[in-house]
Specification:
The structure is a homodimer of 184-residue chains. Chain A contains 7 helices and 3 strands, in the order αβααββαααα. The relative contact order of chain A is 0.11. By secondary structure, chain A is mainly α. The first copy, chain A, has a 3-stranded antiparallel beta sheet with strand order 1-3-2. Chain A folds into 2 domains: 7-87, Winged helix-like DNA-binding domain superfamily/Winged helix DNA-binding domain (Arc Repressor Mutant, subunit A, Orthogonal Bundle), CATH 1.10.10; 99-183. Chains A and B meet through α1, α4, α5, α6 and α7 of A and α1, α4, α5, α6 and α7 of B. The first copy, chain A, binds a DNA duplex (28 and 28 nucleotides) through α3.
Chain lengths: 184, 184
DNA sequence: AGCTACATGTAACGAGTTACATGATTAT
DNA sequence: ATAATCATGTAACTCGTTACATGTAGCT
């Protein structure tokens, strides 16, 4: 039942640090968690429902005035046990499915400018993401030499996000340079 | 019908260069295509079936002796039209879902050595992938200055694969160094 | 008057994974 | 003997996306 289901494990790992509502989890997933796990709001709500049924998390409804009630989830002892069991198993690298590169393979079907424009657009997106992650890094970890073990781990995921996005910017520049030589 | 379905487009793009059987496509997907699109044998067969029904590709059965017959697929005019329509649309960056980083977030639950061992294992995997891609690059593109437009495009996907895998090796080394300082 | 943020969900569908099925040839 | 390679497929299941549904508060 818990052989794959990595979204479930990501939620458990996040709830391991702090309790969240579905909505708050989704916002967190849209910011810092984004650099290692992406999930939609709907996916998160569905997974929270499953996890609660299985007893890995428990919820408490917080009534609010003028706003819909909140359901705050916390991880249970059973949830922690599930996480620990999963931690010792090896994990495969993420599968790569990158549309832009498929388009590069088919690029010859259309004028050079079409793919070049798309690569330039993507370069901007990744550039902005680098800036966003760097800002989070500075805010959360201003002094790298004084981090606890837990903070170091969180810091490393952000470092990975920055490396990943920077690599894309570099590749885009290489591609733009190589393909711009053409007078097609 | 063709708004997403990026595996279909990847197959169409691959068949744009050369005709392949399902089995040959799968082998190609396990080697060079792997650096931008991963798919299992079963997925490829299913997608080929769909694409043929829709008229985007056509097949020819090649009888073989001592071996099962081969079904060779080629792209049709309609398939090329579908590819061209898709090429001009913008594409979003791939969603990131990396189990190793989730494990890093939850790493504090177990002794330091558990996550360190896993990161070292992953470092080796990515290292080997860098070597594999570099070898393909040297074989297919020994002289970068003399590439056709089409070859440049293919070359760039491999360059992206090398950059991606190298970045992982670098990150693993950073993580090992930072987390080894602990005497936990 | 219309947009964004807050807050939680259901339903349908498309994409990806795993297991099962068949059967000959070649290499160790 | 047994494993790997060649070659194609079906079926069941889980995961991810998109559309739909509901309703208040605050901002411009």
């Amino acid at each position: 039942m818990f052989n794959e289901m990595a979204l479930a494990h990501t939620i458990l790992a996040t709830l391991g640090d702090e309790s969240y509502s579905g909505y708050d989890l989704w916002k967190k997933f849209s910011q810092s968690t984004k650099c290692y796990w992406q999930a939609s709001q709907q996916q998160i709500y569905r997974e929270l429902g499953k996890l609660e049924k299985q007893g890995a998390i428990a919820s408490e409804v917080i009534p609010q005035e003028g706003r819909p009630d909140k359901k705050i989830y916390r991880i249970t002892e059973q949830g922690i046990a599930i996480l620990k069991d999963w931690l010792v198993e090896p994990s495969e690298p993420m599968a790569i499915r990158e549309e832009l590169l498929v388009k590069v393979i088919a690029a010859k079907l259309l004028p050079n400018s079409v793919i070049l424009q798309e690569i330039k657009r993507r370069s901007q997106i990744h550039s902005q993401q680098v800036s966003a992650y760097k800002q989070i890094l500075q805010e959360k970890f201003p002094d790298v030499d004084k981090l606890s073990y837990e903070q170091k781990c969180s810091y490393l995921t952000l470092r990975c996000g920055i490396r990943y996005e920077s690599t894309w910017v570099d590749w885009c520049n290489e591609a733009i340079e190589l393909l711009s030589e053409e007078e097609k």
